[in-house]
Specification:
The complex is a heterodimer of chains A (159) and B (308).
Chain A lengths: L7 E6 L3 H10 L8 E6 L7 H9 L4 E6 L10 H19 L6 E5 L5 H18 L11 H6 L8 H4 L1
Parallel strand pairs in A: 1-2, 1-3, 3-4
Chain B lengths: L1 H11 L4 E7 L6 E6 L2 H4 L2 E2 L20 E5 L1 H12 L8 E6 L7 H8 L5 E3 L4 E3 L2 E3 L22 E3 L17 H5 L3 H13 L6 H4 L26 H14 L9 H5 L6 H16 L27
Parallel strand pairs in B: 1-4, 4-5, 5-9
Antiparallel strand pairs in B: 1-2, 1-3, 6-7, 7-8
């Protein structure tokens, strides 16, 4: 995968934003390649800790995107998410993370162009900020228990 | 002091036990105690060294009828626990006590030696016979006092002043410094703070709202949110978990910071979050029995914060 130094993580809801991103791809819309997408059933699934953990593990920006308010396929998932995500975005600066590094948006399945625009804009915002390095020199989890060779095996499987 | 003994004796007629304080025979300051009968209740005290929030014991006493001595801040925790169905209002007998700010005993000990005689009178504080400036030795948590007198009680013991001692209320001592930092500086600030964490989990154990106990995700292996290593990174995750799980639930009682043996200013995080929640939802945890925790509900018409 090409792209700059920064790493972005996107938590996308399966029904709207993921389909929107898919639409952007199949429509061959140009977009930066720094974003890694995690597909979730609903933004209501987005535990704010997922976002913070992503930052700790090396993400430089996190984008959460789901269905427009009123369009949630589970009726109300994104309403709960809205409260949590707004609180999280207000707390970012307290944790020592530039607030611009976290964004949440609503993008529907038909809005491929809007996805391309959002992800481009988001990447452009993060690039000048550079690496976050939230965890400081702290070692990764796996180093302590399994040695650096453990690679991509998830610690959960090992236990 | 005499009021508290009689009140506890009375309450014991209808309850299985009463949570209160007694004087520690070694140091002479208050220590939490459980009173089961009149004889034990003779030992009860309430003074300005009763800093502990006894509400932390309630979730583990679900099967008993419990009396609890509660200051204003403790009462907020009691209310929040009732809202979250951790205790039933009917099983509780709340003995309200008025509080005129508490003493930071650890600070006194550090300065004047362990177990030094402390005499706190209305107008003066005597430590080892020496008169000192009381303001200097007030508990940090009292600076953020929201409620000197309990909002919820069945009986009141002693005197209730009815007002917060406003001269003691001021922001966290590190607040002004902290807000002047850039995000990058805050990262280093927290990294430095958390690098001192020894992972004793005292912050969790004294927190009345941390009642998940054995299933706390700070220590689960699957999923492993925080690793076992005692370093700044894992300790930071521990606190991020705590702060997020206390969103809309933290009553600001300040016990976590008081209990922290290495003095990490945890209330900086929680105060900021409580402010954000008040701003967003006009909600303060523990203020009213009728409230619903703001993150468990939503309001389509009011939840408009720009983005869309």
């Amino acid at each position: 995968m090409s792209g700059g130094d920064i790493k972005l993580v996107g938590f996308l809801c399966n029904w709207c934003s993921y389909a929107g991103a898919d639409m952007a791809g199949t429509s061959r819309m140009a977009q930066p390649a720094e974003m890694r997408i995690v597909r979730l059933p609903c933004t209501g699934r987005v535990n704010p800790l997922l976002v913070l953990k992503a930052f700790q593990e090396g993400a430089d920006g996190v984008l959460v995107s789901g269905c427009h308010p009123g369009d949630c396929h589970y009726n109300e998932g994104n309403y709960y998410a809205h409260r949590r995500l707004e609180l999280l975005s207000r707390m970012m600066a307290v944790y020592g993370i530039e607030p611009e590094r976290f964004r949440y948006t609503w993008i529907s399945a038909s809005e491929g162009a809007r996805w391309a625009e959002t992800v481009t804009g988001f990447t452009e915002t993060i690039r000048p900020l550079g690496r976050l390095n939230l965890a400081g020199g702290g070692a990764r989890d796996d180093d302590h228990h399994q040695g650096p060779a453990a690679g991509s095996a998830s610690p959960a499987e090992k236990r | 002091m005499n009021g508290i003994v009689d009140t506890i004796k009375n309450v014991l007629k209808e309850t299985d036990l009463v949570l209160g304080w007694t004087t520690d025979p070694v140091t002479g300051v208050a220590t939490p105690a459980r009173f089961h009968d009149e004889k034990e209740a003779e030992q009860a005290v309430f003074d300005s060294t009763c800093a502990h929030n006894l509400a932390v014991h309630l979730p583990r006493l679900k099967d008993s009828r419990v009396g609890i001595v509660a200051k204003g801040c403790d009462a907020r925790s009691v209310i929040e626990l009732i809202i979250e169905h951790e205790v039933q209002r009917e099983q509780l007998a709340v003995i309200g006590v008025g509080c005129g700010s508490l003493l930071d005993v650890k600070k006194i000990w550090r300065r004047y030696g362990y177990g030094v005689a402390i005499k706190d009178r209305d107008d003066s504080l005597l430590i080892g016979g020496e008169q000192v400036n009381r303001d200097e030795f007030i508990q940090r948590k009292c600076h953020g006092c929201l409620e000197a007198d309990p909002d919820i009680y069945d009986v009141i013991a002693g005197e209730v002043t009815g007002e917060i001692p406003t001269d003691t209320v001021r922001p966290h001592p590190l607040h002004d410094m902290f807000v002047s930092l850039t995000p990058a500086e805050r990262r280093s600030f927290w990294r430095e703070q958390f690098s001192r964490c020894i992972r004793c989990y005292a912050c969790r154990e004294v927190c009345p709202m941390c009642f998940c106990r054995d299933v706390c995700i700070m220590q689960t292996q699957i999923p492993r949110w925080a690793g076992g290593a005692v370093d700044a990174k894992q300790s930071e995750m521990i606190q991020l978990i705590r702060v997020n799980h206390l969103a809309g639930r933290c009553t600001g009682c300040g016990e976590c910071e008081r209990a922290c043996p290495v003095g990490i200013p945890l209330m900086l995080l929680l105060d900021e979050q409580n402010h954000a929640i008040e701003e967003m939802f006009a909600y303060g945890a523990g203020a009213s029995l009728k409230a619903r925790p703001p993150l468990l509900v939503f309001d389509v018409n009011k939840d408009i914060w720009g983005k869309g």
